[in-house]
Write a structure and sequence with these properties.
binds 2-acetamido-2-deoxy-beta-D-glucopyranose, 12 helices, cell membrane, globular, single chain, alpha/beta, 12% strand, TIM Barrel, 360 residues
């Protein structure tokens, strides 16, 4: 409220008081009460909302608990049905109708064409859901492919003025530090800054989707402060998309029976070391089958439906913790056809567990 103290005179104060009733019915103030996504604001087909982006989105403090699904798109053939509007739209519809999802976090998009972002944008609008695009390196020898993805996301932003009202934020890489992409952190941080500068005119926040529990790199030892790479990244990112994954610490968490203390250590660590930034758990997971798409290591204990069920029951039961800490989370992943064992939906289209995350 700097302008009050700096510029307010008695005359303007009187003027302000007189126009109060009109200010109260101003569209941008009304829409703050009905915000996007999940707060009543409705996207209309390819028509940009009239208000500024800053008043369109629900505040971070409201985006807690279950937000939606992590949605792998790992087929590089842009003509494959998984990259087409019809299939994406069908999945979005079901996510929303059956589970109350309001956002979709895109994961591992191997199609490098603008077509996939255009299809996602269209499906987001059709279902009134928000999307988090991702710039993805991938594991092929050609480590420059990400540039095609970055350019295709930017072209969709440029060609669709509505896109910043559908794209919540953009993840520049998923575990880019863990995977040591871009010839290492020095080049990566430089490209992160360049990408952020390139999308700044669209107002879409930029972050990385990463595990911050990497002692000596992202974090300090024993959860003491940030590590050297974490320190370089922290000032650049607009929000936090954290991978909180006891699954990959099978030595500490052989089963899903006692995973919650890990979250209770991790989330306050993020809050203390990345202050004043929205926190989302963009990736958290468990496998319902031995030998699914991701090994745990340490002999792969607990990869079964019982532990998968217990894991998601535990996360679902912590609604008040997520609310108190203002942290949202995504279920990784939507469907077993995307990443075997991790999906909520099995290969026959059935729901594997009782999933009805409370809104609290
Ligand atoms: C990729 O985009 C180009 C245009 O930029 C288009 O000609 C081509 O058909 C697209 N490929 C697929 C598979 O969608
Ligand atoms: C890509 O997908 C389309 C549609 O399923 C298919 O017709 C085409 O053969 C695929 N291309 C390759 C190279 O697999
Ligand atoms: C940023 O934009 C410039 C100019 O279009 C382009 O050359 C560069 O590759 C872009 N970099 C990133 C990281 O998006
Ligand atoms: C981490 O904490 C444990 C127990 O508090 C201690 O034994 C260990 O030396 C610490 N490690 C480092 C690297 O500080
Ligand atoms: C978790 O997996 C272990 C095997 O690693 C098994 O003994 C245990 O019963 C499982 N827990 C549940 C709740 O099914």
């Amino acid at each position: 409220m700097w302008f009050f103290s700096r510029y307010l005179t008695a005359a303007t104060l009187t003027a302000l008081l007189i126009i109060v009733p009109r200010v109260a019915s101003h569209p941008s103030l009304e829409s703050r009460a009905s915000c996007f996504p999940g707060g009543g604001a409705i996207l209309s087909a390819f028509q940009k909302p009239s208000q500024p982006r800053s008043s369109w989105w629900c505040p971070a403090s409201q985006q807690h608990g279950f937000l939606g699904f992590s949605y792998p798109m790992e087929n590089s053939n842009c003509s494959d049905p998984s990259n087409q509007f019809a299939k994406i739209n069908q999945d979005f519809q079901r996510m929303k109708a059956q589970f109350g999802a309001t956002m979709v976090r895109i994961y591992g998009p191997e199609c490098r064409n603008a077509s996939v972002w255009q299809n996602l944008l269209q499906a987001g609008i059709a279902n009134n859901m928000a999307i988090i695009p991702q710039v993805w390196w991938g594991f092929l020898a050609d480590q420059d492919l990400w540039k095609l993805t970055a350019a295709s996301i930017i072209s969709v932003l440029r060609n669709n003025p509505i896109a910043p009202y559908v794209f919540h934020s953009i993840a520049f890489g998923s575990e880019p530090i863990g995977d040591d992409v871009d010839n290492g952190p020095t080049q990566f941080v430089s490209d992160l800054k360049a990408f952020k500068a390139n999308v700044s005119s669209f107002g879409v926040p930029v972050t990385i989707s990463e595990d911050w529990d990497r002692p000596g790199i992202m974090s300090g030892q024993n959860w003491t402060g940030l590590g050297p790479v974490g320190q370089q990244i922290a000032p650049v990112i607009d929000l936090v998309q954290a991978h909180i994954m006891p699954y990959y610490h099978a030595d500490l968490f052989p089963t899903a029976a006692n995973i919650w203390p890990y979250f209770e250590q991790y989330i306050p660590f993020l809050q203390a070391n990345l202050p004043n930034k929205q926190i989302m758990v963009s990736q958290t997971l468990w496998s319902s089958e031995l030998g699914g798409s991701h090994d745990r290591g340490f002999g792969n204990p607990g990869e079964n439906l019982g532990n998968f069920t217990l894991y998601w029951d535990t996360i679902q039961s912590m609604c008040s913790y997520f609310k108190q800490h203002q942290v949202g989370w995504f279920f990784h992943t939507w469907d077993d056809s995307q990443e075997p064992g991790l999906g909520l939906i099995d290969d026959n289209g059935n729901i594997k567990i009782a999933f009805d995350p409370p809104k609290c």
